């Protein structure tokens, strides 16, 4: 689940999805490789920004990247995971945590997590979808993503409240 989906679970759902951020995805990321592994998909999640007065800046130059997910083409799930884990450990040290998690779309999966500079994290995930297909993914995220999305959402609510308060329509 993306940070955007997490925030939308706390607020009024998809009604605000396109108003607080955007995401771009490519499910056939041809000619892309990470650490010697072919990338099968790439998803990038952005939060809109606000100015000092709370006005939402929803153009492409005023977005903040808060998460990127790289789906790795799986040849051998355990070998590919171990190779990427070894490479990430060589760059970032031992993971902060590594453990199994259950969810609605995965039978089970293992995630190794590293914390980075400036409130960032890296997560290497392997598992099986409930369909039986293997999943191997590298995610980079900002821990400030929820904060950014909620900031924009609160600006929307404030603007809607002001519009209602100032309305004399139909009187």
Q: Could you characterize what this model shows?
A:
With 171 residues, the chain is of the alpha+beta class. The chain is built from 4 helices and 9 strands. A hairpin with a 2-residue loop joins strand 2 and strand 3 (37-50). Helix 1 (3-10) packs parallel to helix 4.
Could you give the topology of this structure?
Blueprint lengths: L2 H8 L6 H4 E6 L6 E2 L2 E14 L5 E2 L5 E10 L4 H16 L4 E5 L4 E11 L3 E10 L4 E9 L2 H22 L5
Antiparallel strand pairs: 1-3, 2-3, 3-4, 3-5, 5-9, 6-7, 7-8, 8-9
Helix pairs in contact: 1-4
Mean pLDDT over the residues: 79
Strand content of the residues, in percent? Answer: 35-45%
Shape: elongated
Largest sheet: 9 strands, antiparallel
**Helical element count?**
4
The number of strands is: 9
* Rg for CA atoms: 19 Å
Low-confidence stretches: 1-15
Element string (H = helix, E = strand): HHEEEEEHEEEEH
* Relative helix content: 25-40%
Structural class category: alpha+beta
> Distance N terminus to C terminus?
45 Å
Number of domains: 1
List keywords for this structure.
171 residues; nine-stranded antiparallel beta sheet; 29% helix; disordered N terminus
Summarize the structure.
The chain is an alpha+beta fold and 171 residues long. Helix content is 29%, strand content 40%.
